[in-house]
Write a structure and sequence with these properties.
single chain; six-stranded mixed beta sheet; three-stranded antiparallel beta sheet; 9 strands; about 20% strand; binds adenosine-5'-triphosphate; binds magnesium ion
C-alpha cells in the first residue's frame, strides 16, 4: 500500500503567508490608468499608464525628476492621485493592499532603536506576532550581512548599512509586492551585489518587485521588464532584452546610450 509522504514542515513565514492567502486572493496585477499627480501647480505625473503583472521583476528607469519616486509613492498608497485610476486586482487600493506591500525609500527611515529592534518592530507591525521574532530578525540581519551590528542604534549605521537594513526589514515581512527606490545607490560594489542576491531570492520566492535604479548594469542584471519613465509618463514598457537591444522609442534609445534626456 502507498504511504503518503509527510508534507515538508512550513517555516513560520510560510505559515503566515498561507494564512494571509486564505484571507484574500492576490493584489496583482496592479494597474494605473491615466494617473495624474499635481503639486505646486505642476503636473508631475501626467496621464501615466502602467500594468504590473505578477512574476516579472520590473525595473523603473528614467532621468532625475522623471517622477519615479512619486510613482512608487502613489502605487504604495502614500500619496493620493489628483486624477485617474489605480487598481490592484481590479479593486481600489485600501488598507489591505498596503499591508501586502512594502517599500524601501530612496533615503531609508530608521526608528530610534537598534538594528535588530527595527526588524522586530516591522514584523510586529505586520501582525506577525506569535512567530519567533528574535530568531527571524537575527536571520534577516545575517542575510543582509549585518549580524555584527544587530545591537547598534540603527540611526548610527552608515548610509549603506542603513540601506541594507531597510531592504532586509522590508523583505522580512514577506510582502507580495516590494517597491525599492534606488536600494543600492550608496552601497559599495560587494554590498550592492549582496542586496541584489536578496532581491533575486525574493523574486524566486514569488515576490513582485518594482525597483528604481540609475545603474543600467544593475537594471540589466535584475530586470525581467523595464519601464522607462519620462516627464511623468511611461514612455516605454518592454521585456528587458527588448528594451536594451532595441528600445522602442527614440528617447529610451538615447537614455540607454547614456545620452541624457531632459
Ligand atoms: N511635493 C512636491 N511638490 C512639488 N514638486 C514635487 C513634489 N514632490 C516631487 N516633486 C517634483 O516632482 C518631480 C519628480 O520627482 P521624483 O522624486 O519622483 O523624481 P525621480 O524620478 O525619483 O528623480 P530622481 O532620479 O532624482 O530620484 C521632481 O521635479 C520633483 O522636484
Ligand atoms: Mg527618486
Amino acid at each position: 500500500m502507498l504511504e503518503l509522504a509527510e508534507p515538508l514542515p512550513q517555516t513560520p513565514l510560510q505559515r503566515a503567508a498561507a494564512a494571509r492567502d486564505l484571507e484574500a486572493a492576490t493584489i496583482l496585477p496592479g494597474r494605473a490608468e491615466d494617473l495624474v499627480y499635481e503639486a505646486g501647480g505642476r503636473r508631475l505625473i501626467d496621464g501615466l499608464e502602467l500594468r504590473l503583472e505578477a512574476g516579472p521583476l520590473t525595473v523603473l528607469v528614467g532621468p532625475n525628476g522623471a517622477g519615479k519616486s512619486l510613482l512608487l509613492r502613489l502605487l504604495h498608497g502614500l500619496i493620493e492621485p489628483s486624477a485617474g485610476q489605480l487598481h490592484w486586482a481590479g479593486r481600489a487600493p485600501g488598507k489591505e493592499t498596503r499591508r501586502r506591500q512594502a517599500m524601501v525609500f530612496q533615503r531609508p527611515v530608521m526608528l530610534r532603536r537598534s538594528a535588530a529592534a527595527n526588524l522586530h518592530y516591522a514584523l510586529r507591525a505586520k501582525g506577525l506576532d506569535g512567530l519567533p521574532l528574535a530568531e527571524l530578525a537575527r536571520d534577516w540581519l545575517a542575510r543582509a550581512g549585518l549580524a555584527e551590528l544587530a545591537g547598534r542604534p540603527a540611526r548610527l549605521l552608515s548610509g549603506g548599512e542603513q540601506q541594507r537594513l531597510a531592504v532586509a526589514r522590508a523583505l522580512s515581512t514577506g510582502p507580495e509586492v516590494l517597491f525599492l527606490d534606488e536600494p543600492t545607490a550608496s552601497l559599495d560594489p560587494a554590498s550592492a551585489l549582496a542586496i541584489e542576491e536578496l532581491i533575486l531570492e525574493a523574486r524566486a520566492a514569488g515576490t513582485k518587485i518594482v525597483l528604481v535604479t540609475h545603474d543600467l548594469g544593475q537594471a540589466r542584471r535584475l530586470a525581467d521588464e523595464v519601464v522607462f519613465l519620462y516627464r511623468g509618463r511611461v514612455e516605454a514598457q518592454a521585456p528587458a532584452e527588448r528594451f536594451f537591444d532595441d528600445p522602442i522609442s527614440d528617447k529610451a534609445r538615447a537614455f540607454v546610450a547614456g545620452r541624457i534626456v531632459v
